[in-house]
Automatic annotation (TrEMBL):
GO molecular function, one term: RNA binding
PROSITE patterns according to UniProt: RRM
Protein name as it appears in the record: HnRNP F protein
InterPro entries for this protein: ESRP, Nucleotide-bd_a/b_plait_sf, RBD_domain_sf, RRM_dom
Amino acid sequence: FGTRRGLPYSATETDILTFLNGLPIWNESGILITLNDDGRPSGEALVKLDNEIGLNDLRDYNGKYMGTRFIEVFPATQKDWFGEEMRMKLSDMTYVRLRGLPYDVTKEDIFIFFSRLMISRDGVGLLYGPDDVPTGEAFVQFMTREDANLALQRHNQCIRSRYIEIYKSSLTEVYRAMEKQYEINREEILRRSRHRPANFPPKFNADPYSHVNSYYTDGYSFPQNKSSQGPMRRSRESKNRSNPYGGKNSHSSVKVETQNFGEFLGPLSIHMRGLPYTATEKDVHEFFAPLRVAEVKIQLGPDGKNTGEAEADFYSENDAVKAMEKDRCKMSWRYIELFRGSSD
């Protein structure tokens, strides 16, 4: 067994097999890409080798690069593999999916429905379809596997006059729902913008995540830090945010929730450190090209001067993950450090 650290966050089992070409690895099933407690790739992986000779050869890859990332390689044990595998399985057992909700249901209604069970902070996500129509479905993340199992026992109990169906879910299902929600919102934005005069700001919030945003923000929270927040933790503030169609966001004619289901997948902001003091927003956009940056906020000190830090917001989780591959790349002569999530 061996451990690899420093992987690009978008790295797949196939990428790792290609990088370790020639080593006796048990195909893709011999690679375990580990996740943080919030379900995002940790930048580490465990590799299962057929023999000790393969382990010796694996050490030769220590210090090599995968793309722009410096990769560390060191030995691991079978205990490490099974321990990590079990940890990820347990963390994936805290999600449930609800169906049959009243269309005017609120996050507070769901919190009351699951009274005495501990829901993670920002752990309720309501789903919307085209034209801002609620689907009657939601995801809920609980603090523990035990509470998630107890939640399943409330299957077919009522919220008001509606029988609620409750099913086991997973972080993978949450990710898929989030991507689908994003596409629905993006198509809605494009459809409505086609019917408005050119260069005229939309009457609705042009942030595609405005309706992914729907989480209950009071409750319980699992341990997290500023750079690694939970999958349903961080808020995206739509007000005063520039939109991709020109102009500033105006008051929305589409219902906009202030708590944010958009962060079901984690923060879409990246904190940058080590910028040249002369860096501009244009420099940040060019640094992440060809990825599209939604907004750049250069941080200034009390004296009004550039602090060498900035926030870059992205439109999708995929773009944010790809952007992290620029960690420790250069802007001019400076190496730039990147961290997931805002510094706020």
